[in-house]
Amino acid sequence: MSKKSLVRQLADTEAKAVTRNLRTSPQKLNLVAGLIRGKDASKALSDLTFSKRRIAVDVKKALESAIANAENNHNLDIDSLVVKEAFVGKSFVMKRFRPRARGRVGKILKPFANLTVIVSEKKES
């Protein structure tokens, strides 16, 4: 009496990596994710390596994880991988307060974001 196993939601030529609770706003993370959408995996890695944005390091780790998942779990050829999707979602927001003049308070929001990277094997034409 065990639970039925989940059906794989991705195609056989795809692999995915999810990074949760990255300490940046989803808007800023989406700018970096937009850099790699639709590119070859090797080109996307080099773009992230030389990006000046702080969060590019974490996006690069997620992309490397997706590439490793494709190679080790799904036996895909890493030389023909393309970043099919890279999308960002909201996570929680830590709310902090800072005392201000005359007994007032300044609200500080510290947002977190989730990142999902899906790599796919491009078809040989």
| Coarse morphology | flat
The proportion of strand residues reads 35-45%
Query: Quick one: biggest sheet?
Result: 3 strands, antiparallel
Distance between termini?
A: 47 Å
- In helices, the fraction of residues equals 25-40%
What is the highest CATH level, the class?
Alpha Beta
Number of domains: 1
Q: Please report the total strand number as a whole number.
A: 3
CATH superfamily: Ribosomal protein L22/L17
User: Which CATH architecture would you pick?
Assistant: Alpha-Beta Complex
Overall pLDDT confidence? 95
Structural class: alpha+beta
Write the layout of secondary structure elements.
Layout: E1 14-22, H1 26-36, H2 41-49, H3 56-72, E2 81-99, E3 105-121
Helix pairs in contact: 2-3
List keywords for this structure.
single chain; three-stranded antiparallel sheet; 30% helix; Ribosomal Protein L22, Chain A; 125 residues; alpha+beta
Structure characterization notes:
The chain is built from three helices and three strands; from the N terminus they run βαααββ. The protein has 125 residues and is an alpha+beta fold. The chain has one domain: Ribosomal Protein L22, Chain A (Alpha-Beta Complex). The model has no long low-confidence stretch (mean pLDDT 95).
